[in-house]
Every structure is written in structure tokens, then in C-alpha cells.
């Protein structure tokens, strides 16, 4: 909870008003504000901020404090023309929340009820997240095609990496372990330009064939150069 502003004498009262999060369920709803920003006409006492602002009346304001009916004016929270979260559709993975200025705002709030693993996870962006829920929030904020690669922190080797389903762990050229699927079907060769010479000296029919071999091997092969390997390069042909 944010600290209160210093006491300010307004009309007949001296009161401290907080503009942070409100934890009380009821307060006072004011019908009219003067040009000086003071609430001047008490509308309904014992009303929550949500109920007060939902009325949609122009100039409606709300205060947390319980003040006597004789109070002439008090500084409160402007409802900003009745804006609420009632009719705000934030879409999946988000929810509406009133900010400190009492304006509705969509914030990331993914459904983590089905998350069973509570430990850290390695994302498909190569970053470690404290848990899957934190990764889902990051996915919501930056709109990435982000998924969980495997449970646990991101690693530099495939040791202790358990890939989901039929995927296999591979270490790329940057020495990062990630999970890929090996049982892909590569299309037939359509051009001689598709040939690649791997760093292992083997000729690969296409980039797809090289990726499949990398997956099956479990470590990065890399491309030496485009085209077939020259005759004095050890190795053979991989289709």
C-alpha cells in the first residue's frame, strides 16, 4: 500500500487520502465535484468504489473514509466519467484491472490452473523462467511464439534434459540444448543447389536432411559450405 499524502485541511475536516490500492469494501459515493476538485455533495454512504463508479454519473467520485454528513467538502478519487472494467474484453490470458488513475487497463493474467510442474522451465527462446506461469506471462506481454522446451533451467548440454513426446535433445552451434523432432519427412531434391557440405565432411541433399541428421546425432553438425563436398573431403553422402 502506498504512503498517504500529508494531511490537508479541506472545508471542515483535515483528512489523509491514499491514491494507491483500496482494500476496503465500502466508502462514500459523492455526486458532484467542484472546480477545485473537492467532492461537494454526498450521494450514498457505505458504497464500494466499483458500485459508485458504475453509476456513470458525470463528476461522481469516491472516498474510502467514513465522514459525517455535515462534511462540506473532501478530496476523493474521481470516477473519470464512470469508466469501469464491466464491459472491457481483454481477450484470452488477460484481465481488466483499474489502475491508480481509476482507468480500466488490460493486464496479463494467464490461466495457470493446469500447470502441474512448479519448478523452472526452459523456453523456446532459450531463456530460463522461474516457472511455466512466468513464461506464459512473458508470452502474453511480448506476443512471442513462446513455448516450454523442457522442464528445468536451460542447459548447455543434453545431459539431464528430458524432452517431451518424441522430440530429441540437440546442442546447437551456440552450445545451447534444445528439443527438436527427428521423424520429419524431407522433400525430394529439386535442384543441385540444395546440396550442402556438412562440417563432418558428409554431403547432405538439403538443409532439411542436415537438420534431421543433426537431430538424430544429438549434436550440431553445421554447414561447411553450400554444394557438394570436394573430393578430398572425408565423408560420404547423406540422403
Structure description:
- This protein is of the alpha+beta class and 239 residues long.
- Among the domains are: 8-78, Extracellular Matrix Fibrillin (Alpha-Beta Complex); 155-239, Wheat Germ Agglutinin (Isolectin 2), domain 1 (2-Layer Sandwich).
- The chain contains 3 helices and 18 strands.
- The strands form 6 sheets. The chain has a 5-stranded antiparallel β-sheet with strand order 6-4-3-5-7. A 4-stranded mixed β-sheet has the order 17-15-16-18. Strands 11-10-12 form a 3-stranded antiparallel β-sheet.
- β10 (121-123) and β11 (128-129) form a beta hairpin.
- The longest helix has 11 residues, at 132-142.
- It is elongated, with a radius of gyration of 31 Å.
- The model is unreliable at 1-24 (pLDDT under 50).
| Tally of DSSP helical segments | 3
The CATH topology name of the domain at 155-239 reads Wheat Germ Agglutinin (Isolectin 2), domain 1
- Distance separating the two termini: 65 Å
Shape: elongated
Which CATH architecture of the domain at 155-239 is right? 2-Layer Sandwich
N to C succession of SSEs? EEEEHEEEEEEEHEEEEEHEE
Question: Which stretches are poorly predicted, pLDDT < 50 over at least 5 residues?
Answer: 1-24
Number of strands: 18
- The radius of gyration is 31 Å
Determine the strand fraction and express it as a percent band: 25-35%
The chain-level structural class is: alpha+beta
Please outline the major beta sheet: 5 strands, antiparallel
Strands side by side in the biggest sheet:
6-4-3-5-7
Mean pLDDT: 75
Under CATH at level 1, the class of the domain at 155-239 stands as Alpha Beta
Helix-residue proportion: 10-25%
Amino acid at each position: 500500500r502506498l504512503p498517504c499524502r500529508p494531511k490537508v485541511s479541506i472545508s471542515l475536516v483535515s483528512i489523509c487520502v491514499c491514491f494507491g490500492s483500496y482494500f476496503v469494501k465500502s466508502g462514500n459515493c459523492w455526486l458532484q465535484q467542484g472546480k477545485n476538485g473537492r467532492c461537494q455533495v454526498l450521494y450514498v454512504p457505505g458504497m464500494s468504489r466499483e458500485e459508485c463508479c458504475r453509476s456513470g454519473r458525470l463528476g461522481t467520485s469516491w472516498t474510502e473514509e467514513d465522514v459525517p454528513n455535515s462534511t462540506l467538502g473532501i478530496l476523493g478519487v474521481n470516477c473519470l466519467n464512470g469508466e469501469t472494467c464491466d464491459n472491457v474484453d481483454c481477450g484470452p490470458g488477460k484481465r481488466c484491472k483499474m489502475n491508480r488513475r481509476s482507468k480500466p487497463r488490460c493486464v496479463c493474467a494467464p490461466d495457470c490452473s493446469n500447470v502441474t510442474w512448479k519448478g523452472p522451465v526452459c523456453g523456446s527462446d532459450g531463456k530460463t523462467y522461474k516457472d511455466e506461469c512466468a513464461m506464459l506471462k512473458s508470452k502474453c506481454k511480448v506476443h512471442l511464439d513462446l513455448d516450454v522446451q523442457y522442464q528445468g533451467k536451460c542447459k548447455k548440454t543434453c545431459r539431464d534434459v528430458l524432452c517431451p513426446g518424441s522430440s530429441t535433445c540437440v546442442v546447437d552451434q551456440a552450445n545451447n540444448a534444445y528439443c527438436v523432432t527427428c521423424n520429419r519427412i524431407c522433400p525430394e531434391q529439386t535442384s543441385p543447389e540444395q546440396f550442402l557440405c556438412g562440417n563432418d565432411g558428409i554431403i547432405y541433399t538439403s538443409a532439411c536432411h542436415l537438420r534431421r541428421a543433426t537431430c538424430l546425432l544429438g549434436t550440431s553438425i553445421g554447414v561447411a559450405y553450400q554444394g557438394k563436398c570436394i573430393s578430398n573431403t572425408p565423408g560420404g553422402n547423406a540422403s
